[in-house]
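FAQ

Q: What does a record look like?
A: Structure on top, sequence underneath. For example:
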């Protein structure tokens, strides 16, 4: 990348709130129904109907606000954002403008081991529009209004990210957070979590921001990174060839890996915002907040600190294990059930288990190895029934079958040999067969020791107790 330029990025994330019914009507929000079977008179904006605010959506917005340590507005207002679009039958979208429900907060991201705090300007409630379906009918556009009125939380960041990598880290962290809080299912294919990326470049050291372009509706982490990097290059090219970047809305085409202009950017006053006369202001009192606070789950940041303090985990393991609530719960259950050292449990969960889950493209909630069965395996490592190496073999079996670790160890005869007589016999044999190496060791080549350990282990099919082998070898080689 050209080093004379620096990038400024701000993200607007739309998270669909996981309420059962819509934000202003009783219609279902379930995804995938037959077109237009879940749009009621309120969602269609028919004359004579009135919207009624869904308290659950408010509750979820407040939960979010608390999680990012934001100011929760005691008084917030819904506004009409007026524009014409085929999938917006009312001719306006109910949103919030001047007085959003969630004020200034922040989210900490980690990029290459460095933590950075990203400011969040605001988060407001609004309704989603319907969908235009191009391509379903020859020469026609279909309109599906099932999504109309689905609750969204729009989360606006400060322009404080300076690379596509940081933007992806922010988007991932936000994705984890809303799922962790249980306020959004995070399903990006279904559009439950998507973002608009605002990108500008400026000469290094310049104070004022450059002109930004906004890339609309990106629904994958991979595309966010690609779209932003592409846009940065495009803007630099425009400026370096003597042109100016225009403020506009662009669309990312993932097939061609390019962004293209959609429309020139509209200003807030183009939308003729005004307070929606059909809806009362939202009043949030201390009682309501206290009630939510009491039900708030332990937040990721606090959980991570607790994992570091109580389980003596390093930063990396603590970060991975608290990346989702289900993973954190799984780990804590394994610690409890196995009674083993937390560090060992953490290494197994973040190591072998997560690697296997990744390979199989599975979530922890669908793990073929339950926490009981993993705990059963770890118990046998810590009581020296099997070595760490054999444990990996048992883990593979746990993954493939439904047997317990004890059953596998028994059936395959994998118990560790601690019988010193048996180990001694093998050691004597190995020493007798490798006199050259014995000479080398005795003349000071300590490295050869590893060779002996390897030979003994091989001879005993990995089942010898490694501690015992080490001790006896040392004595014999003296
Ligand atoms: P709008 O609502 O019209 O899109 P906002 O002022 O609310 O505009 O900003 C939207 C997003 O654009 C915010 O996330 C903000 O951080 C980001 N942003 C604003 N100015 C710039 C800029 N010059 N470069 C990059 N991002 C910007
Ligand atoms: Mg915008």
């Amino acid at each position: 990348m050209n080093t004379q330029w620096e990038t400024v990025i701000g993200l607007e994330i739309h998270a669909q709130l996981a309420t059962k019914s819509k934000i202003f009507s009783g219609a279902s929000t379930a995804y995938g129904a037959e077109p237009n079977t879940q749009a009621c008179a309120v969602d269609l904006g028919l004359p004579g109907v009135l919207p009624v605010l869904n308290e659950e959506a408010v509750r979820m917005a407040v939960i979010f606000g608390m999680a990012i340590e934001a100011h929760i507005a005691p008084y917030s207002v819904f506004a009409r954002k007026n524009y014409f679009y085929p999938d917006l039958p009312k001719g306006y979208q109910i949103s919030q403008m001047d007085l959003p429900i969630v004020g200034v907060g922040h989210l900490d991201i980690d990029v290459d081991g460095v933590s950075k705090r990203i400011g969040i300007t605001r988060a407001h409630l609004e309704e989603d529009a319907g969908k235009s379906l191009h391509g379903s009918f020859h020469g026609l556009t279909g309109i599906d209004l099932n999504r109309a009125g689905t609750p969204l939380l729009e989360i606006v960041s400060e322009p404080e990210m300076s690379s596509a990598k940081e933007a992806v880290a922010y988007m991932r962290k936000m994705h984890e957070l809303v799922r962790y809080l249980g306020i959004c299912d995070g399903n990006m294919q279904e559009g439950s979590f998507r973002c608009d990326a605002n990108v500008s470049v400026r000469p290094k050291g310049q104070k004022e921001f450059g002109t930004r372009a906004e890339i609309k509706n990106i629904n994958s982490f991979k595309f966010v990174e690609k779209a932003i990097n592409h846009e940065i290059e495009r803007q630099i090219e425009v400026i370096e060839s003597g042109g100016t970047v225009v403020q506009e809305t662009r669309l990312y085409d993932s097939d061609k890996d390019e962004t293209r202009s959609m429309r020139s950017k509209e200003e807030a006053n183009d939308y003729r915002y005004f307070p929606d006369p059909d809806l009362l202001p939202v009043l949030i009192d201390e009682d309501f907040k206290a009630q939510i606070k009491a039900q708030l789950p332990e937040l990721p940041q606090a959980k991570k600190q607790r994992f570091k303090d109580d389980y003596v985990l390093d930063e990396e393991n603590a970060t991975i294990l608290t990346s989702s609530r289900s993973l954190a719960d799984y780990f804590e259950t394994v610690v409890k059930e196995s009674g083993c050292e937390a560090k060992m449990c953490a290494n197994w969960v973040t190591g072998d288990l997560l690697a296997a889950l990744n390979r199989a493209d599975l979530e922890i909630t669908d793990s073929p190895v339950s926490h009981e069965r993993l705990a059963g395996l770890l118990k046998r490592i810590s009581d020296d029934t099997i070595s760490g190496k054999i444990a990996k073999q048992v883990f593979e079996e746990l993954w493939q079958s439904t047997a317990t670790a004890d059953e596998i160890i028994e059936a395959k005869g994998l118990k560790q040999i601690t019988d010193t007589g048996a180990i001694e016999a093998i050691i004597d044999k190995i020493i007798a067969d490798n006199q050259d190496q014995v000479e080398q060791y005795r003349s000071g080549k300590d490295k050869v020791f590893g060779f002996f350990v390897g030979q003994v282990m091989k001879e005993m099919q990995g089942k010898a107790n490694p501690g015992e082998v080490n001790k006896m070898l040392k004595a014999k080689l003296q």
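Q: Is there anything notable about this one?
A: The pocket of magnesium ion (ligand 2) is lined by residues 12, 196, 214 (CB under 6 Å).
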